[in-house]
Amino acid sequence: MLIKNIQSLLQTSDASKVLRGDSMKQISSIENAWLLIENDIIKDFGTMSSCPNFLGEIIDATGKIVLPTWCDSHTHLVFATSREEEFEMRLKGKSYQEIAEAGGGILNSAKKLQNTSEADLFDSAWSRLNEVIRMGTGAIEIKSGYGLSVDGELKMLRVIKCLKERSPIPIKASFLGAHSYPAEFKENHKGYIDLIVNDMLPKIAEEGLADYIDAFCEKVAFSVEETEQIIKAGAKYGLKAKIHTNQFNCMGGIELCVENNALSVDHLEVVNDAEIKYLKDSNTIATLLPSAPFFLSDPYQPGRKLIDEGVAVALASDYNPGSTPSGNMNFVISLACIKLKMTPEEAINAATINGAFAMELEKELGSISKGKKANLILTKPINSVAYLPYSFGKDSIESVIINGKIY
C-alpha cells in the first residue's frame, strides 16, 4: 500500500528514549509526504518529490494527516457488565469512596464477574477491543483485578490471553489481584496478600498469563507497605510494576514505585513537589488518565507542571465500568489539552511514543519509523494537528490501518 499526497506525516523521529520536558513539545513531521507499507510494516517514507512509482493499492491523502495509532497503556477492558447504577449514585452526591465502602465499585464488578462465564467475558471484551481499534488504538494494556480470587483472576487473565492470540493489535496483560480487598478479607489483609503471593502468582507464572504486576495503592485499597509486598512478589517472577497511585491521596506510593524501578505510576490526580522530583530523576513514566476525573468530577492531573518539571508523561484511557466507561483516546487527547493544559504536540507524544514506552513496545509502535508496525491513523481533511483535540466529540478519523490493512 502506498499513501501519497499526505498533508502532514507526523511523528517521523524514532525516539531512542522516552520523551520528557522540551522534547515533548515538538513532533517531527514531513509535509506533502508519502508512506509505503510492505506486508505489515512501514517500508519507507519521504517527501512527494521522491515518491516511488507503485502499482499496488494507492491511497490519496490530500489534505489529510497520517500519524501512529494511539498506544493505550492503562485499561480494564475485561469486565462483566456496566455499572450505571453507581453513576446515578454519584449524581445524587455519593463519593467514589462512599460507594466503595458500601460494597459498590470494584467489589461490585468482582461479584458480577464471578457469575459470568469465560466465553461471555471474552465476547464482550472482544467487542470493546474492536470498538477502540476503530477509534485509533493500535496497542493496548489490559488489567485483571475484578476477580479478587484465585479462580476469578485466572479467569480474567485467560480471557486476556485469548484476546492476545486473536487480536490484530499488540496486547500487554497486567495482573491486578491487588485491586481491592474482597469482603471476606476486609479485616485480614495479610491473608489476602498471602493468597496473591502464594497461590495466584505461581499459577499465573506457570501459564504465562501476565506481563506486569499492578496494585491500587490508596487509602481505600492497599497501603504503601502492602503495595511493596506485591511489587517484590511480582519481581520474583519477572513482572515489572505498573502501579495505580495518587488518585485521591499522596501517601508515598510514587516514592515506593521509583525505588522499585516501576515502569509507570498511573493516575496522579494529586501529586506534591517532592513526588514530582522523584519522578523527574527516575525512569518511571507518569501515566495520566484524564477521563477518570472527568467522569468522577475529581481534580485533574497536573499535566502542565509534570511536563515543565521534566517528568516523562504518557496518556491512557483507563477504560473500565466504574470510573471511565470509555476507551476513546481521541477524547483523552482533548481533555489533556483542555484540562491538563498540554499542547496538542505534547498530548500526541504522550499518547503515541510515550504510551508505547509505557508498554515496552517502543521498538514496534509509537512513531513513523522504517521497520515498525504499519499501525496508522489517517484523518479526514483537516487544517492542522491542533484540530484533533480542538474538535472534541467529532470523529476526525477517516481510516485506521492495522498491520498494513484498512481495519
Kindly summarize this structure in a few lines.
The chain has 407 residues and is α/β, with parallel strands linked by helices. It has helices spanning 84-91, 96-101, 106-114, 118-134, 150-166, 189-207, 224-235, 253-259, 273-280, 291-296, 303-308, 329-338, 344-351, 353-357, 387-390, and strands at residues 2-10, 29-38, 41-47, 58-60, 65-68, 70-72, 137-143, 171-178, 212-217, 240-245, 264-267, 285-288, 313-315, 376-379, 397-402, 405-406.
Please mark out the parts with pLDDT under 50 across 5 or more consecutive residues, or reply none. none
Count of distinct structural domains: 2
Q: What's the CATH H-level superfamily name of the largest domain?
A: Metal-dependent hydrolases
Strand content: 15-25%
Distance between the termini: 14 Å
Largest sheet: 8 strands, mixed
Q: Please name the CATH architecture of the largest domain.
A: Alpha-Beta Barrel
Number of continuous helical runs: 15
